[in-house]
Description:
The protein is α/β, with parallel strands linked by helices. The protein has one domain: Rossmann fold. It is 32% helix and 12% strand. The strands form 3 sheets. The protein has a 5-stranded parallel beta sheet with strand order 3-2-1-6-7. Helix 1 (15-25) crosses helix 6 and helix 7 packs across helix 8 (211-226). The longest helix is centred in the middle third of the chain and has 18 residues, at 106-123. The two termini are 34 Å apart.
Amino acid sequence: MSAPALKVLSLGAGVQSTCLLLMAAEGHLPGLDVAIFADTGWEPRAVYDHLDRIEQEIAAPVGIPILRVSSGNIRSDALDPSKRFASMPLHILNPAGGEGMSRRQCTGQYKIRPIKGKVRELLGYPHPQRIPAGVHVEQWIGISVDEFTRAKDADVAYIKNRFPLIETGFSRSDCLRLLRSRGFDRTPKSACLGCPYHGNAQWRALRDGSAEEWRDVVEFDAALRASNAPATAEGSPLLGQAFLHRSRRPLDQAPIDRITAHEWSERQGDIFDAVADAEVENGTPDGCSPWSCRSGAPVQAG
C-alpha cells in the first residue's frame, strides 16, 4: 500500500490562499502538510508583513511549516542587461505610435519554477533526478468558485492539483468574510510591487499609502526607459519604450486617479477595498497567483 500523498499549499499570501491556510489550520480542510511561498523579491511590504503574521498566528501553532523559495529578484533582473530577456509583461509604445505588450514569463520564472524545485526536494528527487511514476504531491491552489475556469491540471505528473475552495463552494467574497471574522480584514492582494497588471486602485493605494514603495516603482518605471535592459523572450532588442502603466505614460504622470467602471460598481456595492479587492480595468483582471495569474493570459511555465 503506497503512502498518502504529501499535501502542499501553494501560498501566494493573498485572499484565497490565506483562506485555505486558515481553513486547514482550523480543521475544516484536514491534512495539509506544508505551505510554499514563492518570493519574487519585490512583493509589497504589506504582503511580507501579512506572511509573517499568518505564519506566526495561523500556521506555526498547528505545525504547518511555511517554506519560502525564490529564483531571483524580479526588479533587479528586469534592469540587468546581462539577462537574456525581461520576463515582466511591460506595456510597450512603439516608435510609430503603435501599442504592444512584452511577453509575460514572470509567473513561470519566479513563482512556478521555485515551487516545482521545492516540491521535488520534498519528494526526495531534486532536479535532475527522475521522479518515479506514481510519486506525487497533492497541491492545494486557492481558486474560488467565481473563477473556476482557471482551475487546471498540473503540467507535471509529480503534482496533482486540488482546488478545495471550489470543492466547498467558496467564492472570493466568502473568503473575505471568513478572514475578516478572524481579524484579517486587511489581507493584501498578492502581486509584485510593480506589476504591469495593476489597475488604478492599486497604483493609488501605493501612491497615497506607501510613499517609499511609490517612489520605488516610479524610479523603476523611469529606469525601464533609461536602461539597456533586455526586452523579449526571443532575444530581439526592444524597439519601443516600456511602461508599467497601461496608459503608456510615465507612472508619476499616468491617469491613476481615473475611477474605472468596475471600481465604481464595487464601491456602490460597498465591497470595495483598494488593497484587498481586485480591480478589473479594460477587461483585464488585476492580480497574480502562482498557478493562476489573473492577467487573463496563459502562464508560461519556466
